[in-house]
Amino acid sequence: MADVASRTGRPRRADVEAAVLDATAALVGDRAYAQVTIDAIAARAVVAKTTIYRRWSSKAELAVDALARTLGDPPVDDRDGATAVRAAVGWLAGRVREPDVRHLLVGLVDEAGRDPELRARLRARIRDPFTQALCERWEVEASVVDLVVDVVLGAVLHRIAMSGDIGDGDVESVVDLAVHALFRGPTVSVEP
Amino acid sequence: MADVASRTGRPRRADVEAAVLDATAALVGDRAYAQVTIDAIAARAVVAKTTIYRRWSSKAELAVDALARTLGDPPVDDRDGATAVRAAVGWLAGRVREPDVRHLLVGLVDEAGRDPELRARLRARIRDPFTQALCERWEVEASVVDLVVDVVLGAVLHRIAMSGDIGDGDVESVVDLAVHALFRGPTVSVEP
Amino acid sequence: MADVASRTGRPRRADVEAAVLDATAALVGDRAYAQVTIDAIAARAVVAKTTIYRRWSSKAELAVDALARTLGDPPVDDRDGATAVRAAVGWLAGRVREPDVRHLLVGLVDEAGRDPELRARLRARIRDPFTQALCERWEVEASVVDLVVDVVLGAVLHRIAMSGDIGDGDVESVVDLAVHALFRGPTVSVEP
Amino acid sequence: MADVASRTGRPRRADVEAAVLDATAALVGDRAYAQVTIDAIAARAVVAKTTIYRRWSSKAELAVDALARTLGDPPVDDRDGATAVRAAVGWLAGRVREPDVRHLLVGLVDEAGRDPELRARLRARIRDPFTQALCERWEVEASVVDLVVDVVLGAVLHRIAMSGDIGDGDVESVVDLAVHALFRGPTVSVEP
DNA sequence: TTCTAATCGAGACGGTACGTCAGGTCTTGTT
DNA sequence: AACAAGACCTGACGTACCGTCTCGATTAGAA
Lengths: 192, 192, 192, 192
Prior knowledge:
- Four copies of one chain form a homotetramer.
- The first copy, chain A, contains nine helices and no strands.
- Chain A has helices spanning 16-30, 38-45, 49-55, 59-71, 81-97, 99-112, 116-137, 142-163, 168-184.
- In chain A, helix 4 (59-71) packs antiparallel against helix 6.
- The termini of chain A are far apart.
- The interface between A and B is large, with 53 and 55 residues.
- Chain B binds a DNA duplex through residues 6-13, 16, 37-39, 47-51, 53-54, 57-59.
């Protein structure tokens, strides 16, 4: 979406964006993203379908923004480095277990496979902000954090997709695994 | 599918199954799972659509079988325990990077989120055989292997979905991470 | 539409065509053709929209068939030449005054202006059969009959479009005018 | 349209009306009335869509005015009564053969069927002026002229709609037919 | 050999969502 | 006020795919 509004013409309704994104998140909390129709989103947001297509060129773009909004930012944490990082990663893992975040992310991962632009958008809006937030506060390398994020998100999503759910213990395990790699470095091979 | 062929009536063509599964894998190698239509599969396999639906009740079920067939079995390995296990997990990670396996799996993960039966089928045909193969030959607990598989598959898939590709080094990292957990136990440090 | 049904595959439902054409005529009796939606026709005929589009490539083609069916054939007439011809033309004029025939014809005339194929279809299905029926029974030239038909239909339609209705006397006048030309020849100029 | 300009506020641009009507006529010369969008007219007239809707309440009203402007008035003719009347009717027939006049009229006829106000407007702006011009100069009854006009316009339009074009001879025939009725009276022979 | 029952090919069918388009209304800032 | 620009709502469009169905034509084993 354009960052600068054009100077002329009727300005865009300011509340439309939030209404549509919230409607999307709400509907996606009940059923999977593929089951949520643009018409249903429009109806719930009390907005015309054409208004949605004027702002987002596809369902996927809309989903990225809805995900970014629903996901939110990790809570601030003043504790010691390792502890705080672990908390942040754990928060992310917890968010992905929620139905709305999960449904959006899974649906997008499916479509991202066939759309490079969507991938870039997904990185820019979802992963990068989280990674940056961590890097700004503690001394960690961005590329390593990216991998940690992918491991955590991927593992949790895949586990739920395969088993319908994931236990608290398994989430802990995955987070531990990833954070351990983050600090010790990921190349701790089993062989001597 | 029926295990026993009925005694009367025209017998089913024996070569149909392989032709359809191969056609599915071939088409899914080029485009994403959602882009591959049943009609296209039927046309490529030179088979009627009805013939497909007589054997598989839905596109998803067909995809599971196609995935199982395309994925194949891990190569036999006579080496020492830890080394062989790592090789097996590494082989799995390598297979998931291939477009056909990846597209099928991602598409199925999407649908599995809203279909418990599909989840069960997916576990039974894809994850369990692999887990069993490992458990039979080496002393590892099934539930731990399951988690390792989910971590590896999920991480690799998610990485590719986010970045379009995954480097050899990152694959190594993920496999190391997972195998390390497999032997040390995943509960490295739940408490701070 | 294809005259010969293909030998293979599920045969087309025989009653669909009549149901759709009747539904079209019925709906077009109430409102103008442009106001009648394909969805409404499908709903009234208890048929899927796709089924309609399988048989008719556009709303206009459907309308031509609906018009041909609704219009019907001129009643048989054993009387003397001139009298019978006048009766036939009068019958045509009377039919065009009916809302369903009128709405269909006006809507088609509008679209025919931008579609040569539709024009040909319109001639073949509507005007030619009527002209032929007259030529077969009495000694009249086809091209002259065509012109007479165009004069009668055009005049009645235009009159109704301009005034909302046309009186019985005016219909008589138009028919007389046209039939007079038919027998005396149209080139009876006012000048000597 | 308002007859008196209000005293306060910015005065209306005087050249807008002509620009819009000309743009309409020009666009309608190429494609059919239904294919010409208000946005296209606005763009061609270098005028905002709101400016158009401030003057005309609908596309149809605009089209009526555009038609009246494009059609123009019959040329003055000082010859003897019958000859001049025939020339005037012939001029009208000739004008209707032009693409712009024809497209506008056909499109309006379609819409007039469902809109009584449009019918009245069409009569007042198109048919009545022509009829009056004839009545003022020669001794003919208005209602008869109206019928003649409807016959000529209807016949020519319908002929073109059915055949794509109309030959000069056929136009002559139609005009002769109509004018003949005008002078002899239309009730040549209602009874057999 | 004839009968029987299931398979196969071909394609019609119902249903659901898609993304687009045009008419007409409304809301800004500018003249 | 009028105007330019463009957002907005409404309603219909024609398309695509899924999964079901109905035919005629096969193709075996059973009677």
